[in-house]
Backbone:
């Protein structure tokens, strides 16, 4: 089977290192450089300043009224083009960091919030004692990735220890599972942080990680251009394959088909079928004409959003005869 990927539009006024479409398919949010951009359909609604946001995926509440960007939640009805201040809440702002402050931890790096707002995952770096340079050994742990309950402002569990406070971390969280990609790729239960799946051993730096809609698979992109795809139950893993000729930067699962979209700094977007065992088969390709930063399928599956350096491209995914899934 082959599919066609054709650009059919472009969202004005924004770009993103993270992007997602709400469950209804009406609202798109992209986030990058301490701000989020909101569109209704192809119309720009407004931008939101998110002071302190560094990186992390975008998710939505089930009713589509709130967008979660990293550790922030945005009331989408309050976002307007008039420049008025929207309703923004830092979900983890009330957490007592006193114990970690004593250890000289600081909240930094990547963060993400589940759609129901019940869990937030965030990376913490370790601040060296005064006089110790970045190139000198830390006087303590490199950092941690922790699971937080924003409703009670409390820590649930430490899910990953970091060797270095500058270590690359990518995360993705759903209401039931959280994926963390460092030098280890792992999946945890959001209820208590217990381990569900992990792949140990050294590997190239992972740049993005995503769980499939049903939570049974996890995929990650890597700086050497490879992509890996694993079954969370450990059966049917696809060994890492060369998906791109430059850094692979983004992955996204199709909401209904056994397809994985990947994008990279070779300016290419590819769609792979993992229906058969073994290495996934490339079934579609699109040239973005710029480095790809993030990907997101429309929830109905017929469109794929491609975030590049200064724009968001809207592409249609079709079999060549008709759209895979017609949009409402």
Residues:
């Amino acid at each position: 089977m082959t599919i066609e990927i054709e650009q059919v539009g472009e969202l004005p006024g924004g770009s993103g290192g993270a992007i997602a479409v709400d469950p209804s398919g009406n609202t798109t949010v992209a986030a990058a450089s301490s701000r989020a951009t909101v569109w209704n359909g192809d119309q720009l609604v407004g931008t939101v300043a998110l002071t302190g946001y560094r990186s992390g995926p975008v998710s939505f509440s089930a009713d589509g009224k709130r967008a979660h960007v990293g550790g922030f939640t945005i009331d989408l009805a309050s976002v307007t083009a008039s420049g008025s201040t929207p309703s923004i809440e830092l979900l983890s702002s009330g957490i007592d960091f006193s114990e970690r402050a004593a250890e000289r931890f600081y909240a930094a790096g990547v963060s993400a919030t589940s759609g129901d707002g019940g869990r937030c995952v965030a990376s913490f770096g370790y601040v060296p004692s005064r006089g110790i340079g970045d190139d000198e050994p830390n006087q303590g742990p490199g950092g941690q990735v922790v699971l937080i309950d924003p409703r009670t402002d409390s820590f649930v569990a430490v899910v990953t220890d970091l060797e270095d406070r500058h270590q690359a971390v990518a995360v993705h969280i759903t209401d039931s599972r959280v994926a963390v990609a460092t030098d280890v790729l792992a999946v945890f239960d959001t209820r208590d942080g217990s381990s569900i799946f992990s792949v140990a051993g050294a590997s190239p730096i992972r740049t993005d990680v995503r769980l499939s809609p049903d939570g049974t698979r996890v995929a990650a992109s890597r700086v050497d251009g490879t992509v890996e795809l694993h079954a969370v139950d450990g059966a049917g893993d696809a060994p890492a394959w060369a998906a791109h000729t430059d850094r692979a930067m983004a992955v996204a699962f199709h909401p209904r088909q056994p397809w994985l979209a990947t994008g990279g700094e070779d300016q290419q977007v590819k769609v792979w079928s993992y229906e058969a065992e073994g290495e996934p088969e490339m079934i579609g390709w699109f040239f973005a004409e710029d480095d790809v930063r993030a990907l997101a399928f429309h929830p109905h599956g017929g469109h794929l959003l491609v975030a590049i350096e200064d724009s968001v491209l809207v592409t249609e995914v079709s079999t060549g005869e008709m759209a895979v899934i017609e949009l409402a």
